[in-house]
Structure formats: structure tokens, C-alpha cells
Amino acid sequence: MYRVFVNRLQRKPAMKNLWLKLGILTVLCVLCAWRLSTSGIRYGKDLQGGVSLVYSVRMPANQQDADRVLGRVIDVLKQRVNPQGVLDIGMTPQGNDRIEVVMPLPSAEVRALQEDFRARLEALVAKGSVSRQDLSLALANGTAASTFGGSDAASLRALAIVDLQRAYDESNTARAEYSALGLQNADAAATSAAEDRVVLAETRYERLLASILVMTMDRAQLSTALELSNKPGAKRAADGSLVLDADGKTEATASPRELELARVSASFPDLSSEINALVAARDAYVSKRTSLDDPEDLMRLMRGAGVLDFRIAVNPQMPVGVNPEELRAELAKRGPAGGAGDAARWFKVNEIRQWAETPEQVLALEADAGTYFAARGLVGANFGGMPYLLLYDTPAKSMTHTGDVTWGMANAFITTDQRLGGMAVGFVLDPSGAEMMGRLTAPHVNQAMAIVLDDEVYSAPNLNGPISGSGTITGSFGAEEIDYLIRVLTAGSLEVKVGSDPISMNILGPSIGADNLTKGLWATVYSVAITCIVMLLYYFVPGIVADIALAINALLIFGIMSTLDGTFTLPGLAGVALSVAMAVDANVLIYERIREELEKGEHLKQAITNAYARAMSAIVDGNVTNLIACVVLYNVGATEVKGFALTMSIGVLTTLFTGLWVSRLFFNILTGPLGVKSLPMLPSVVPAVSSALRPNVDWVKLKPALLTGSAILAIFSLVALFARGNDIFETEFRGGVAMTLSTRAANPGEPADEKGRLQLHRADIEARVRAIGEANSSDVVLSELRTANVLTLGASGAESDASSFQIRVGNPAVLPEGFDESKITEGIMGSVVNEFGKDLDVKLPLAFTGAGDTNHRLYTKRPDRSTIGESLGRPNVSAQPIGDFRNGVAVLIENINPPVSVADATDRVQRMRLQPEWSATAGRKTLVVPLASVDPNDPAKAATALAILVSDPAGNWADIDAESWDRTVASEEWKIVSTAMSQQASLDQVSSFSPVVAQSLWASALVATVLALILMLGYIWVRFGSFRFSAATVVAVGFNVIVCLGFLAISIPLAGTGFGAALYIEEYRIDINVIAGLLTIIGYSLNDTVVILDRVRENRGKRSWVSRECLNDAVNQTFSRTILTGGSTLATAIMLIAFGGTGIRPFAYTFLIGLIMGTFSSVAIAAPIAYSRKVEEEERLKAALAAAPKTAGSSLATV
After folding, report:
1. Per-residue model confidence as pLDDT tens digits over 199-212
2. Between 1.10.260.40, 3.40.630.30, 3.40.50.1860, 1.20.1640.10, what CATH number should domain 2-37+512-675+689-714+998-1178 receive?
């Protein structure tokens, strides 16, 4: 195959093929340019900022290896969210029960469209919503009908509000008449009659008011409707068959989205135009967005544990071991968890539209799920506005993950719904799962089997026969839902439950800062420009060809990555710049061969043909060894390493394409249609340059000195590395403390944000924090503040000025024996508060009834009525349905001084939940309801009494008896709420973060690298026919990595010296960027070594051994190529260090050291190891002995 490829290269291109190839290249470039112009480049969170979402994790009590469990959960989530690793999404454990997920922000254009859509959505929801406060004010002013009735006076809500206004007026009139009779001392009969009229009027008013308050636009319902598929459905007859038109084509019906939006519009006919505008805004946003541009996308993928179960559905005609009516009554009384029986359980239907095809069916299902499902052979019921199905829960009638047999998913894929013709999800079970499925379905033929994912029923098809091995999940799925199902099923299930929604969400500024961002981007541009200039000045016209090929190479890399929705971090962009510099190597190899052929007297066309043929093996072998490393890293490494491997693979393939195909195409055009007869280059124009780059060094003679010096350098590096110990790792590899702080209200004349809070510069905050560490350099804990990182939270200005910040500080590398680790957080937090106290938003203590009281029973209630007001024993306070807070806890805070707003009280409780002591409660839902306030017209502004309702979505509090509820729920929530109100708070959040994920990343990168080296050793052994060549390559690569790590270790003590400052040496430690630099160096070093060894193989010819002259000539012949490639790449690395800023220097420093050592090791280590004097002497002796008899025989014949 390789020889065929070379022969093809040696053919003379026909003119028609030449123009065809040029056309193909043009189309490729246009496609990539079009993709970039429409989607652009996705920048990582270090360049563009990101969104931080913190999730609670329900870790079992007394879990021994919680950090490891959390690490495994994160691994599964990464496979679900970022399976290819091309998205810059970070996941970090916080303590033992939280995960912080950080994703990049979308581009400015996408953000603008996103904000427009969200603003329209919020405005529409607000317009379609009715609050008790606003409605009461409008009723008092007599404007309720005009304010809330809408433009359609005949709509249900408009008519109801007219009735409400009339009832309100009648109630006021009745109250006024009653009061007047009291003033007139009327007789008892008249007073009693007036009192009855007041009661009737107010009762009617309250009833109408309650009915209107629930006539509000449901934001979740509207959002769900917008996410539905817009693909038209297929019309079906009553018997389920397709309806065909006159042409024999299937008649189309409205899409699922159109049907759902029609229902919303029917409820709010006066808002139809706003709904249509919202749909248009969302379509515009979706047309520009890419995957995971919106935090909502990430939140959707994070939801659910990914647990797939199969359960036989209870048949209403033949229930086995269950009484459906009794379980319905229990469901209504105690909810789904409390309404379960011994043999069956209630499961919520995933989406109503998956079970109903027409608006009439949807209404019927919402109104009475029992009757609706009974007609379909299922037992259903309604609870909380959602339909539920009754499914068996016994081992014989279910296939779950609670048994002794472990089973799982082998594959999940997109398929077609054979019944409805839409998209569906197909799945294949592993062998254990297939066997269990066969045992479950065989006895239940002609019964319905429900497919349940995360305790929600997706479908319940009828079993026409036993099945095993595979199945299909059907429904009216849109593309996003299909993607979610496949990702979740493929990634696998989680060991522990992750909260369905984040407990906090913040916007982070660029992690490297705006100043470093600008420096890094410009340094990348400068480095590419230098490479192109060097090629132009050295090779003239071929240099122009090389520069065009490099530009096309970069265009292809960016275009392909954009097609894959890949994300570029600053080191990633620098990596592309370096790959461009390394791609120069292919051109240099070819051009040096062209020069050699021209010096032999070949004419230009033949010189070009020979050059490409002879450079082919070195180029292919160097890039194939890189591809081997990339394939191993992608299949073995963590998701972050996968992303690097995929990007590197794309770079390798595009380098091969542009180096061997594109540049050859341009040379064919030059020597063909353009008639170019000569290609002068700097070495041919200035012979002194050629002589200087073609030394005559006896490298074999220097072998002992070179290998000895290399061994000493490697030993020195290892000693420095191990002496540095754990301090060689950056913060994320050691764990540490993360703090969030917000600034106070700005004083007159101080810079302020849109909310009036003091704005500070990120760089100033970081400098002040690090100054604390410098001032306490002898303190084992506080000294770590010298390397603290600061990010902006929320909106920030062009200069990274903001009012909220996150500070991340690493744990000490080594702690004194007996040191109390709990003091780490306390010491760091205290020092930060002392430094920034006058600038912080400090929550002052509040006085209230019960402050400091340990008897929680006086201040807590268990909500168990239908409305909040009834549950609190104060029906006039709120007619809002109790909803998810039923059987939760209500904490009463009364006589508050000074009065507090609902927003402030909510923030205080949320802050308290985010503290380490209460982190296990972070996933609970909280609702603050004002009971009494300073201003009755705006009770949320300054309340003197509050009810704080709490529920736990995963707690199943309905099943807890009164005593346990009092001891574990009410007592705990009273402590949290009372402490939040009575305690001064300075920091928004304090948490520890674990290094387990970063350590796993480092370990997976090491394992993948070792495995890749083993495979590369085998490949080179086969291709070069000698184990010495393989060993030489691996030893050289290993030497490079060791020296790079050693120089990282010595950068820490050098950083504080004048020498280090002059060379831009900072305290470099191992982080994800350094790992990327090490992996890049492995690729560069491999290519550099293979090029020299390939020339050794060529000079060796058909001999099985390498001679002294062969090796010396190979190194000297490739010396010009080594200097040119290494020099241009070295210039790139130096530019990145000198002008790139602190954000890119760890990567650039690692690559610079690796580049120097890679160039050195290919000449001083790999090449000498490939030569053996002993082997040469033995082979020459064999050759002499073989030739001796022939010589003697010929002499005798002559005599």
C-alpha cells in the first residue's frame, strides 16, 4: 500500500486532474470558511468566561470513600456531557457532596440572541401571570379588567376578572353597609343580615380570587412547548392507519410544537402576537447556537441518574396482587412515594404529549388519567397536575438494577418509530441484560411493558412476543430529547443521585483575565507571522507555497473543529500555532530534498517528483506515530485528554493533507501552466548558508559524552522533581478552598454596577490576596495565598471590574505533623475577611422572636393542606397551592427587627446552605412568604414576619412519621433558618474542592502515554526493521518528558530571582495546560526523531546494520532541516512566553523546554543509540569472512 502511494506521487499529473484537484481544494476551503463565518470559533472559559453551576450530591450517610465515589460520578457525567472531550467543560468536586460544573459562555452574537429570547420569554410570562399583590392593587383602583383581562374581552380570564371586580366591589359595599349600621346602632336583625351579606360577598370574592390566581402562564409549560419538534406529524385514522391524500402521500398534521403552542394560545388568546414573536426569537437564537451554548442545555444533560428499568404495567382488567382503587386513594392522600404498595408503585409519565396525539386527547388525559389509560389497558391516576401509571415492583414483573445480577447498556442509537414514523431511540443490552429481558417478557406476552428512565415512564408498548437483547424507546421526541436519551444511556448510570437543578449559578469572567487574554491572542498571531516570514525569506517562491499550505492547514483545523462544535482554549490556540510551526517540517523536508535533487543536476519537475517520493516515508512515519499516540489518548485518557487527542489528530491529518497533497498541487501548477523552470532558494543563492547548515561532525565519536551528559541531566531533573514533591502540582491537583464574596453598596463617587454595588478590578483583588501570602510567607497555610486565583462573578466590565468574585486557594503541599486540617479553611477565610471587610456586603444580624431558642417546635409547622395559607393556619395570607412543599417544613420568623425583604431573607438562607456545615441541605427548595410587612401594598419589600417553606425533592418526607420529622427535619431547618437570620455573614460561600478528578486526569494521561509508547515502539520496530530504532525513539521521548518535569520543578525557586524574572520564569506547576504542553512535546519529539532515523534507514540501504559513516551522514544531512524546523518553532515558543502573558506561559514554557530537549535528544540520544560499534564490527567481519574464500579461489585460478 505504501509503495502504491509513492508510485502515485511519482506520476506526472494530467492537466484535467490538476484543475479537478484545485476545484476540490477550493470547495474544501470554501466549506470551512463558510462554517467559520456562520458558527465562528468557540472559545473556552479561559478566553470568554464561563458559567459556574454547583450541584448537590446525595451521598449516603457514612460513605467511606465519598471522594472516590464523587470522582466516579464525575467521570460518568463527563461521558454524558462531553463524550468527545472537545468542549471546555470542567467538573470539580466541592467537599464530599457537591460538584461545580463550569462551561464556556457563548459568543457575543449568540448571547445577544439568547438574551433577546429570554427577555421576551420573561416578559410574556410576566404578562400572562397574575400576582395577588398586583391584582389587589388593580381591584382597588378599579382597573383589574383593563390590566389583566387582556385584549380579548370574551376570554375566560377576562370574563373571570370582570366577575372578580364585581365581587370585590360588592364585598366593599357590603362591608361599608355593615360598618354604617354599626355606627347607626341599628337593630340586631338588620346588623345580622348585613353581616351575612359581608360573609357571602367576601366568600365569593375569595373563591373567584383563588380561581384567577391559578390562571397564570406556566413558564415550564411554555419552555417545554418551545423545545418540541417542529417537524409535521403524520395524520392517522381512528384505527391507527395512515391517511393518504389524492397523490398517495401521507397527509401531514401540525407539529408537536404547533399543537402545544396552540393550547397555550387558546388559554391566552390576547397574547397570541407575543407568543408568535417569542417563537421567532427562539428560532433566530437556535439558528446560531451550537451544542451546549446555553446553561439550560447543560442542566438538561445533568438531570437524572441515567437508570433504565423495565416494568410490566398493571392491567385494570386483571390486576395481580394489587388493588388499583386503594392505591389511587393512597396516591391522592400521600403522594407517589407514600402511595406505593408491596407489589406495585406509581410512576410519573415523562411527557403528556408522548401519550396523546391530538389536543382533545391531551385535555382528556390531563382531566382524568384513570379513564384515559383504562381504555388502553393501563392503570392511571392524576397527582399534582401530572398523570401517573401503576407498574409492578416485584422481581418477577420488573427488570431493575436492585438485584444481584449486574446488567447494562451495550449501545444506544437513533432509529425510526415504526408506528408513528418519527425519531426514536434504539438500544442494545449487554449479554446479562439480554438474558434477563428474555425471562421477563416470555411470561407476559400480550401485556404492556413500561420503559422507565429515572423513574419516569417514557413508553409502554404491548409485548407481541418474547424479546431480548434490544428494544426501542418511542415518543414524540425532538432532536434535543433524542440527544439527551442517547447520551444518558450511553454514559451509564450514576452511583448516587445528583440534584436535578443547580443550587447556585454564576457567570465567571475569563480565568486568565482580560489583559492576559489580549496578550495571548496577539502572541499567537505574532508567532504564526514569524513562521511564515522565515519560510518566505529562506525558500523564496517555495516559501510562498508553504505559507499558503500552512494557511489552508489552519483553515481546515478551525473549520473541522467548528463543525464538531469544538472549543478552543488559549493553550489550544497556541497549540494550533505550534502545529502550524511543526507543519513547516513537512515542507522543509520536501524543499531540502528538492534542493538536493537540483544539486545533483535533475531538472525541476523530476527533482520535485523525487523529493516528494523520498520525503514520503519520513513524513508518513512521523505523523503515523503521532496518530498512534492520539488514538491511544482518545480511547484511554480522560475527557480533557480526549479533546486534546482529537484536536491533535485533526492537526496531524490536515498536516499530511496540506504537506503532501496541497503543496504538491501548487508545485504542479508552477511547473505546468505557469512554466516555472527554476526554484532558487537562499542556500543556492548564498552558498555560505548551505555550508553553514551542512556540518561534517563525527557524531559517533561524541556518543559517550552526549549520552553521559544526557544521563546527568535526566538524573538532575528526577531529583529536582521528587524533591519538589506535591508542590509540583497546581491548585486543582492538590485541592483547596474556594470562596465567593460580594461587595457592599457603593458610596457616592465610587464606581458602581447597575445594581449600585461597589465595583473592584479583578487584578487588584488578586494582588491584594497574593500580598497576604507574601506577608505571611512563613505560615504554612496563608503562604498559599501567593498563588491564589481570582475570577469575576456575574457581569464584568472591559477591565474585568465586577462586584462579585471567586477566590481559589490551594491546600499546602505538605502539612506539619499533627496539623489540624480543619484550620485551613478557617485561617484562609479569616485573612480574606480581614483584608476586604470594609468592601464586603455584610449581612447584619436580625432580631426576631425565638432568636437563640433551641425549642424549634414553637416555630415550625408541617404543611399538609392544599394552600400555603391553610397550612400555616392563616388562610388570608396566601391562596397559593402548597405544591411540592406539602409534608415539608414551614419555619415561622416573627417580629423581625429591622424588617427584611423577601429577597434578602432568601439570600441569607441560601448562603447558609452553601456553608460546609450545611452543604448536605443545599439541594432543598426554599420559598419565603411574607406574613406581615411595613407596606401592605408591597409585602415583599420590608417584612416583619415571614414563613420559610422548605421541601426536599429527594427526601421523601411524606413517608416520615411525626416524631422523625420533628427530630430530623424541623429541628435541622430551624437551626439553618434561625442562624441565617441571627448571624453576621461576610462571605457568600465557602467550600473545599477535591483534587480527585485532576489526579484521575493526570493518571489517565500517564497510562495512555505509556501504552502509546509501547505501541509506537512496535510500529517503529516493524517499519525500520530494528529494535534499536524503537528503543532509541522511546528513550529520547522519555528523556524529553523527564527534563520538562525537572525544569518545571526548578522554575519555582528560580521565579523569585532576578535571573528568573529576566527569562520570564514564574512558578510553573503541573496543571491541565502543562499536561497539554507535555503531550504536544511527545508528538514533536517523535516526529523529530523519526525524521533523522528515517534518513539513517535510507543511507543504510539493504544492509541490516548501521555504519559509522551512515549515521554521521544522516545527522549532518538533516541538520539544516533540524535547524529550520526547530528554529521556527523555537521562535514561536519564545514569542508566546515573552508576549503571551501569564495565562499562556505554563504551556509555552513546557513546550520551549521540550522543544530544545527534543531537538537535542533526536541528535544526541536517538541517533547514537541507533548505532552500535560492536554490531558494525561483527557485520564487517562476517562480510570479510564471506568474501575471503572467493578471493583465494580466484587467485589460484590465475596461477
Report:
1. 888 788 877 877 77
2. 1.20.1640.10
